Amino acid sequence: MEPDRPAAIVTGGARSIGRTIALELISQGWRVGVLDVNPKAIASSQALAEAEAGLLVPLTASITDRSAVTSALGTFSATAGPVRALVNNAGMTLPARFLDQTDEDWDRIVDVNLKGTFIVSQVAARSMVEQGTGAIVNISSISAHGVRTGPPAYAAAKAGVEGLGRLMAVQLGPFGVRVNTVVVGTIGSPWLLSRKTPDELAEMAASTLTGRIGTPADVAGVVAFLCSDAASHVTGQLLSVSGGQWIA
Q: Cβ distance 7 to 80 under 8 Å?
């Protein structure tokens, strides 16, 4: 029997932007598997979604571990139904300037941000191709476009995510699978807000055309649209959610 809600996966969905995306998708009628390496953070997200009992499903795995990803998505699909949408939100970075970037940190950052996106997308896309429908949304960053200074490995990995997304759109489009990428600017996450001074936050807000720092909800609304049937004719695109910090 067809599940009462379509199934979606959000990687890195236990905190900040990922958590907000997961909760937004639930509010719009999805059942969401949250794939994250932190079971305590997933449990916290479940508590926020307790009014929608059973609609946020914990999936603990590293996105760089193909066998663990395959097992997690298989377990989720067995009860929630075939995955119709995937949001590749998981990522990480470490502070370093170009001349200070180490090989070890480079490998770790690229593995999580780029290879992890490839692995989860490939696993999910095989099922989507069989269904003849699906939506994949990748999360990138304005760092990929040189808008602000940051670790070179992160900028390179996110640029790779954008290139991968375009190729996925071309190769999966004939099978009914749409792929788009959201390019995120400065977002007022709890981590950022707790570590920046009022003057620093004001400077960040001034760098946008909207005059404010973005919120996780700004990103979640666009992602939910791209997952929905309302975006059925949108694929292969970069959508900037940066308040104009980067204009596509």
A: yes
